[in-house]
Records
---
Amino acid sequence: MPTVRLGFSPAPAHVRTARLVAVAVARRAGVPEELLDEVRLAVGEACSRAVALHQLYHRKELVDVEMTDGPRFTVRVHDRGPAESRADALPDPVELVAHSEDIVTAEPFPAATVAVGMGLALLTGLVDDLEVTPSPDGTGTSVRMSWPIA
Amino acid sequence: MELSLQTGTVAGRTVLRVTGEIDVYTAPELRQRLLALIERGDGDGAPPPVRHLVIDLSKVEFLDSTGLGVLVGGLKRLRALGGTLVLVCAQARILKIFQITGLDGIFTIVPTEEAAVAAEPAAEDSTGDQSAPPATDR
């Protein structure tokens, strides 16, 4: 049973709100102060990824964020992207940069997919306990992350 | 505090000073400003187009992967045009993001604006590259 549950329409403007709420709930739950930056960045990345997937696949549903206290502080971010958006392999950002030449010559700045890949790479580098799984109901993915409580 | 962008100069070099949060919401604004600098010129739209740019991230409170994507795009664009990009950042929390993603090996990152000029000493905007805007991509 989540302690706090937040649903937001899949627009970039709301990701900041999700970050602020997550940090406030994490602090209240007793996550050590030095880990709060990590919570802020990780929840932001997970929510940005969900927003990007919803926009890419024209899904209007809310992005769902669940925060749960317990032995650890756990955050789950659910998206409604289709099955093919599931991340089986986590890309290496340096590889992405190296191999995005064709994208870059055509379009001076990397495609959104590069940023989404980088987001996952950042998440894996940042969060010790991270899991990306298909949602139980069969639509979309769920990013689960947890942090210790002091 | 969201995002604020200001252009200035340090030792004749164009500096883009970024304040606030660079995230999925604000990154498009940063991208537009970078494109304008590279295609047209300084903050007032005055030519020549910038080829040797310093981006000062000292007052950035938050940077996510979308922001990293825009910075990478700017770097690649400038390099393709024979230019340079130097980032100014001394904040551990922001530097950590470059380290985690391995992008600290791709960007030149220095602690101060003065050090940025020293980091790419050969590059001078004042010499003006080609007079024409970059109509053809090499």
---
Amino acid sequence: MTALESTTEGKTGVSGAEIRLDGVTKIYRGQKAPAVDNISLTIPAGEIAMFVGPSGCGKTTTLKMINRLIEPSSGTISIGGEDIRSKKVDELRRTIGYVIQGGSLFPHMSVAKNISIVPKLLGWDSSRISARVDELLDLVGLDPSKYRSRYPRELSGGQQQRIGVARGLAADPPVILMDEPFGAVDPITRQRLQDEMLSIQRELRKTIVCVTHDIDEAIKMGDRVLILQEGAHIAQYDTPEVVLSSPANEFAQDFVGAGSSLKRLSLARVSELDLRQPTTATVGENAEDVKQRAQANGDRSVIVLDSRNRPLGWPWVRQLKGSTIVDPGQDLVNLDSRATLNDALDTMLVSGHGGAVVTGDRDTYLGVVNFKTVTDFIEAMQREAEAETGAAASNGADEHPSERISIAPTDEELQSGSAQ
Amino acid sequence: MWDFLVNRQAQFLINGWNHAYLVILAVFFGTIIAVALAVVVTRLPALEPVANAVSAIGLTIPSLALIGLLLPLTGLGATTALVAVTFYATLPILRNAVVGLQGVDPTLVESARGMGMSEPMTLLRIRLPLAWPVILSGIRVSLQMCMGIAAIAAYVLGPGLGAWIFQGLAQVGGKNALNLALSATIGIVVLALILDVLLLLLGRLTTSKGVRV
């Protein structure tokens, strides 16, 4: 409880707690080989640690030992310096958010009931709970008045997963465990959910442990990536940059895969790019003014924002009918500023404008990214890499020069594609 | 037959009421016993075949025989009737409760435990509400079956409409024999239909909108 209270106080900065595993081993009864073998690692407060590895490598077992769904055979685990066995198991779990694949919502409970489970267990009063439910729905980008009283089966897979995340965050726990949280949704929804999770994390700074089998997801989401081998031996535990550039052993190298140069696109974030600032318009504004502004800027399209500065649509100027600006009712695919260049390219390919709208915290508008911005950035990155390779080659230290060169054709393709 | 019923209206209604009361009470106890047993069975998977065998074999015991076996223990009267009917009421509910509880997605249970719900809380707030529609359909089957079995219980002087059936059978060829047996039988059928509708309503009220079919 004390850890929880202290986190609700400090809204800014890190609200997570450090997790430390020390010599943790799990041997299931009747099995000789341990499922998890003598793991020791520290996850710093406020960071995302991604556990990645082939199935059966013990990553989920390791995760479940942190909230004692599985008891370790030996070794200790502590959260915020406190041994997890010092509390009653149910009390411990109420201070740890738990999000699993598909959201795992209780079908007989409304969205609000699902989210308020842990606050209720903690004895919050009902007005505080309902305020918290609305706050969380807003945080995960769902309109509270519309979704509060719906049942899980009335939601799409992505929405269910969002509610699952909201439920995990409900009592503002310092630590959140996620087991393949975005495994059950389609790739576009997954990318969106990942971006949203990153933007939420930027705001909350929890300690998040997330299990995935997808190395791309691990590299994109993780502050640290833990690559596990059979029997939960640590192959490597480091930042994504290091995991990509210098795999610790053959297993890690195989697992990261041959396309690791392309994967580096996953390390650069949209926030590092210089965003273009085209003409914007706010709902309710005079349409003529907007058209004139667009003409002055030389833009053939404008971005329509709502009163809270969230993008609603990206219509062409000729599509602006009537005297005032209204919600164009488009299904705009936004790009979170924490999204990777990989995601950015994906999103731009499906957009009719050859670009994508970038949003920041709580979906507020930041600017537009287009192919030119991305290719400029890749070129700069490549020049840097070449300079480095030149230096490294003279030392004979670079093992994978081919990876860097392989970016080049992609680059050209992109430039020919960016001609609008 | 109409005159016959009008003349004995009061008795007919009392018998009907007693019949319904006996069945409702038996099904109520049967539900509690069956759900409790099912909770135990789902915790100890080794018991599941035992439970299935008991509920299958139990239903093959002729009700008259069971009532006869109970006589030395509980004597003539309402108690014997209630015990016998409760025994039969339990069986279909037990089977459905086991199936219903086993049908609850284990990841939901794990996620409930992972959020810090205690085991009894998980049972009451997650497992039983999710299994409820299946349990309820067992209760409906049980109720229909018990309407008939309760009639047999009149053999040991149990309450209900069965008394008139036995009376009618005893006076075969007599003036009112057919009236007695037929009116009681129709009464039982009508009662069964009414109670089934009430159970349907109860089901609608107690089943969450999120899991209603």
